[in-house]
Amino acid sequence: MAGGITETELKQMLVGKSLFLRDGYLDNSLSFNEYGRLIGHSPQGSYTLSAIEIDKVHLGKHKVTLEGARYGLHFLGQLAFEDTSSAYDRVRITPKKKMLKITIDREVVVKPRKEKEAKGSKGPTTGKEENDKGKRFLHLKKGTAPAIDPAQQAPPPEAPELSEADQLKASIAATPVEERPADPTSVTTTVSPAHATKVLRDALENVFAQGLDDRLMASLPDFWKLYYQAVAAKTDYRPKDPSVLRQNTVDQKARLLTNFQPDSNEFAQANGVAGMAQYHAVVGPDGKVGEVAISRPIGFGLDESAVAAIRKAKFEPAIKDGKPVAVMLNLDVPFRIFSKLTDVRPQPEPADKPAEPILPGPYSVPHQ
Fold first, then answer.
1. Nearest CA among 245, 164, 202 for reference residue 22
2. What pTM was computed for the model?
3. pLDDT tens-digit profile of 56-76?
4. pLDDT tens for residues 96-141?
5. Domain ranges for the chain
6. Where are the alpha helices (DSSP H) in the chain?
7. Which superfamily does 221-335 belong to?
8. Which of 134, 172, 259, 296 could form a disulfide bond with 278, CB atoms 3.0-4.6 angstroms apart?
């Protein structure tokens, strides 16, 4: 169909590409309407759990069906100013015997309705036609039945034209259940295959990001934005507020008052993702945590847990010239693998000494 998209074109667009689900939906079965908005509900998570690889594409009349697998990003310990060209592994987290299935409804192309001819309109007549009329009139006066030319018989009445809405209903009803749109109430119609193609392309753009594009980057939490800004500049993080001091320039360092153990998650536990991550935190004069940035990420959704735990932690502020001041400190956060028998996490307790950075070397966790 002229202006329409083909299954081959969709495969070229999606199969084998580095894709991310923009909104981090975690379910393995996801349906989107024709505008790329989720139908129903799904838990959401980190972009590091939202890498997608599409293996199969099926283009139906009413929806596109995509099958593939979800991957997690496991970072390998590089600091922002180090070489990050291969900073992470992509680890498949969809079980091998299962699949990730995504459907996107399509705008339906229908036939345009014909314009009705104006009532009472007549075309030009010829003298022969007038004579024929006279002849028929004479036949009737004489009481004889006029001869009927088969070619002049009235054509059979045309079937009534269906409205676009009725065409849509009929099309859905005639389609196997598995091929029908997930949300028939939101499907629109068009007489233009090119318009339907544009709507589908826009929906794909709303569902997937081709790598870390500007739109996906803008949606990330600030601690990831600050990390990638440092990566782009090949430098370490610097607080936005230039008055924030470093720990080695104050008279009394900021001190962590409670130990904490951030939550892991089922994906990290199932894939053996453990190790040490590092974060920068600005502790204000009131002892409260302000800006947080990732220094050495771990991925797999664990950085989000670490930042949440850091924000809940209690600190004693730094002192300089007898006054509390804002400082930046480094926090190393370990992540462990917990078995069912040893999943006993330590309760927060007062720390015996200030939280000094312990800089681990690069680490990596082997995966099957």
1. 202
2. 0.77
3. 999 999 999 999 999 999 998
4. 889 999 999 999 998 887 654 445 555 555 445 444 444 444 344 4
5. 7-110+164-215, 221-335
6. 7-14, 127-141, 164-173, 193-207, 214-219, 222-233, 266-270, 302-312
7. TonB (3.30.2420.10)
8. 296
